[in-house]
Amino acid sequence: MSDTERLPQxxxxxxxxxxxxxxxxxxxxxxxxxxxxxxAEHSCDPHGLGLDxxxxxxxxxxxxxxxxxxxxxxxxAGRNRFVSLRRTDLDARFPGxxxxxxxxxxx
Amino acid sequence: MSDTERLPQxxxxxxxxxxxxxxxxxxxxxxxxxxxxxxAEHSCDPHGLGLDxxxxxxxxxxxxxxxxxxxxxxxxAGRNRFVSLRRTDLDARFPGxxxxxxxxxxx
Lengths: 107, 107
Known about the structure:
The structure is a homodimer. By secondary structure, chain A is an alpha+beta fold. The first copy, chain A, has one domain (12-106): Arc Repressor Mutant, subunit A. Helices cover 46% and strands 15% of the residues of chain A. Chain A contains five helices and four strands. Chain A has helices at 17-24, 27-36, 56-69, 87-93, 97-106; strands at 5-6, 42-43, 72-77, 80-85. In chain A, a hairpin with a 2-residue loop joins strand 3 and strand 4 (80-85). In chain A, helix 1 (17-24) packs antiparallel against helix 3. The radius of gyration of chain A is 13 Å and the shape is globular. Chain A starts with a strand and ends with a helix. The A-B interface holds A 17-27, 30, 93-97, 99-101, 104-105 and B 17-27, 30, 93-97, 99-101, 104-105. Chains A, B: It comes from Kitasatospora griseola. Chains A, B: Residues 9-105 form the HTH arsR-type domain. Chains A, B: One of its GO terms (molecular function) is DNA-binding transcription factor activity. Chains A, B: This is ArsR family transcriptional regulator.
């Protein structure tokens, strides 16, 4: 994706299981995961993510943890940033993990 | 198991996904999970768990986190305590999760 600017993220082969589990072992970040599970890009607006009760900087912190763990990717477009799940990368790295996690988290 | 004394642990229905992920999002606790993956009971001796480099109280702390999250059960027999994985309970609560986690963690 040379024509797309992205915030720093680990290469697929460098995504670490313990780091991913730590990233997802938090209720706010699990809420974000469920939002991103649709595969679409999401803006960083806390309102659109159902996180109105949190300060924007808190939401940004949680997004950063997810991105640095390799769970999400962030595309930069001017002043906007769009976050999406690295579904293909995670499925390749840890087969079956998201398939097990997402239904369990949504129930 | 009325004839067996166990340390406190959540009922199967009360095992919380985020709490489990938080418990497993730590390298020492992931090492313990891999030891317990054989389904057998294990003593709390750090040496037998390949954790000689850690103080016994540190290992005890990590074991407590796993037990309180519902990942393990601890049977008390006199002065001895034996820890094992709650495989059946976890498989019932979060189908496919351990099946995905254990191979990924072992690789």
